Amino acid sequence: MDSPRRARDPQQGRNGHVRLADPPPERRIGSTAIPDRVVVAGLAVAVIAVLVQTAAHLGNAAFLDNRFTLLSADAEGTPFSWASTVACFAAAFAVLLAAAAFPALAPRLLLLAAILAFFSLDDAVGLHERLGAELLSPLLGLPAYTSRLLWPAVYVPLLLLAVALLWRLAREGPTRARHSVRLGVALLAGAVAAEAASTLLFRLGVTHGDRIDFFEVALEEGAELAGWIFVAAGLTSCALHTLGLSAAELAHRERRPAPATVAPAAQPAVERVRVLT
Fold first, then answer.
1. How far, in Å, CA of 171 to CA of 168, rounded?
2. Per-residue DSSP letters for 209-260?
3. How many of the other CB atoms lie within 10 Å of CB of 134?
4. Are 224 and 187 in contact (CB under 8 A)?
């Protein structure tokens, strides 16, 4: 009696060798699926963070008479100032990842990482505000609100340099990463413009605690927070995409077969014919 046949494994070849299934498209090395997901995740985090920050800041002003400092987007040592600092430092760390992915741009990217880390430090300790309010304004005898001009005057050159480097780096990434970085840069530029324009509001008689001041702060801080998140997500996506392409090229080289040597063709046997005489 014949023994029953074994059911052949669909992953098993004709000679009994196991054939590995191809990975799904989103897991293939060099695919843009995972870098694009990083950008989408950054967008979601930015929208949620800005909505929570704006609602807390305006709600504290409208319903709580601005009694809770922890709910203010303009105060130091709050969850919102921490979030902005972390987002800025995340962008600096993403630049370090990009430096590993783009060795030719490494010197400029290390400079960019240092600038962004400095911005993160300033955001954490309020360096530009303290220098203006506690040092320059008393020494020069200027009103306190003029300290808001210090940050744009001193940091705009650094910001312009950072923008140029970010714009250059964004060209190396996939489409969504490029858009994320450039949108973040635009939002950061808007935050700088809003802070500079706030000086004009104080010259026109607006004081701290006015409704216009609360809306200006919500707009400025929201643009800054979202901008750093978009930049960090876009840079991380660029680095992942480029590292994936490098890994794909390396894997392709390892799989490339060695050139085959062509054996000389066998000489056909010549049959001898006997001639009968």
1. 6
2. TSHHHHHHHHHHHHHHHHHHHHHHHHHHHHHHHHHHHHHHHHHHHHHSPPPP
3. 11
4. yes
Low-confidence stretches of the chain (pLDDT beneath 70) = 1-31, 128-129, 131-152, 245-277
Q: Residue 80: which domain range? A: 32-247
The structure's pTM equals: 0.73
Please indicate, yes or no, if residue 61 is contained in any of the structural domains.
Answer: yes
* In-domain check, residue 21: no
Candidates 128, 121, 117, 116; CA nearest to 195 is 128
Query: Is residue 2, in this structure, part of any structural domain at all?
Result: no
What b/e string do you get for 184-212 counting C-beta neighbours within 10 Å, with b at 16 or more?
A: bbebbbbbbebbbebbebbeeebeeeeee
Structure tokens that stand for 171 in this block: 């060209």
- Give me 200's structure tokens: 């004009």
How many distinct structural domains can be found in the chain? 1
| pLDDT at res. 190 | 92
